Amino acid sequence: MSFIPFALPDIGEAEITAVTEAMRSGWLTTGPNARAFEQEFASFIGGDVQAVAVNSATAGLHLALEAIGVGEGDEVITTTHTFTASAEVARYLGAEPVLVDIDPDTFCVSPEAIERAITPRTKAIIPVHYGGLSCDMTAILDIARRHGLRVIEDAAHALPSTWKGELIGSLASDITVYSFYATKTLATGEGGMVVTRDPALAKRCRVMRLHGIDRDAFDRFTSKKPAWYYEIVAPGFKYNLPDTAAAMGRVQLARVRAMRDRRAEIAARFDQAFASLPVTLPPSPERLAGRGYDAADTHAWHLYVLRLAPQAGISRDDFILRMTEAGIGCSVHYVPLHLQPYWRDRYGLTPEMFPHSQACYERMVSLPIYSRMTDDEVARVISAVETLLRA
């Protein structure tokens, strides 16, 4: 019996053909496919946004903070319950990330915890849309407006999630950043997108993503100015997306809603099968409808995260081991930043400072959920979970 991995990208012949055509065109670095991907992504999000393609969401978050002027001595509030990129980008600029706890019902950053953490040094908030569920953006944007703070959404999990019927990326935040890593709901291997409706911020991100040069390579070789001439206007970075990845992304973008719908089908099957087991089902707009969420909103279902109840009779680590023995890969999202040596030691963090994140971490497990899963594979996952938890 074959092993069911935790995640697999949904890559078909159309993506392979697009990448092959890009290679044959001679444009391997940022070129016409990257430009078209940006335009198509901006149209997908809507709201007159501009999109800037980058080589990772980490790069996008770094560019976003740099563009809004985050620097030495500033503070940036984000959640402890995330991948380290959400916080480390502040350190790139000499700023200090301030980690706060999550709402235990959503796994997303707690708006109340954000407000308690604000100081005169606070410059920005980075809310993380966990697993494909939107944060409470109404509350977070209200906090930012009242305190004069910038908002950079970490939407690495959130394509095509919505909040109050609006796509993440089209809200009143300053910048939204997406990930196209291999496991994400749109995959290019490595890659990301910065989205903003502020032309000045978009321009700054474009300049800084490629060494601070005033024109991309594609612009230099297609404009009327001499191709050899360029100007360095800032000490930038090397964050551009190659055309081969962008070609794959364009195909994936055309399929992203269908791939999301398949993930939602799998999540619904899991919900039905696990409802009577000693677990807490993942947060969803429907289950949070009484908590300010709109039941009709879209969950991207990047992750499907169960919390094992104490009466499950098995630890999280033993559960994952037994699932592996059954030929099924699982994971944990995340080992919170307050437990990671760098963050723990630099800021003197303890589990007691983040009780909700800590309690969730100790009991949570991410099951496989990806759009190319077959019905038989979904059934195998269900059977394995039921075998472990009904015992």
List keywords for this structure.
single chain; 391 residues; alpha/beta; seven-stranded mixed sheet; three-stranded antiparallel sheet; 13 helices; 12 strands; 13% strand
What does this structure look like?
The structure is a single chain. This protein is 39% helix and 13% strand. With 391 residues, it is α/β, with parallel strands linked by helices. The chain has a 7-stranded mixed beta sheet with strand order 1-9-8-5-4-2-3, sandwiched between helices. It has a 3-stranded antiparallel beta sheet with strand order 10-11-12. Strands 6-7 form a two-stranded antiparallel sheet. Helix 6 (137-147) links the parallel strand 4 and strand 5. Helix 2 (32-45) packs parallel to helix 9 (243-274) and helix 3 (57-67) crosses helix 7 (199-208). The chain is globular, with a radius of gyration of 21 Å.
Detail the topology: elements first, then pairings.
Blueprint: H1 13-25, H2 32-45, E1 50-54, H3 57-67, E2 75-79, H4 85-92, E3 96-100, H5 111-117, E4 122-126, H6 137-147, E5 150-154, E6 162-163, E7 166-167, E8 175-179, E9 192-196, H7 199-208, H8 217-222, H9 243-274, E10 279-280, E11 304-308, H10 316-325, H11 341-347, H12 355-363, E12 364-367, H13 375-390
Parallel strand pairs: 2-3, 2-4, 4-5, 5-8
Antiparallel strand pairs: 1-9, 6-7, 8-9, 10-11, 11-12
Average pLDDT, to the nearest integer? 96
Q: What letter string, H or E per element, gives the SSE order?
A: HHEHEHEHEHEEEEEHHHEEHHHEH
| Portion in strands | 5-15%
Note poorly predicted spans.
Answer: none
- Give the class from helix and strand content and strand pairing: alpha/beta
**Order of neighbouring strands in the sheet with most strands:** 1-9-8-5-4-2-3
Based on CA atoms alone, the radius of gyration comes out at 21 Å
Number of strands: 12
**Percentage of residues assigned to helices:** 25-40%
Distance from first to last alpha carbon: 23 Å
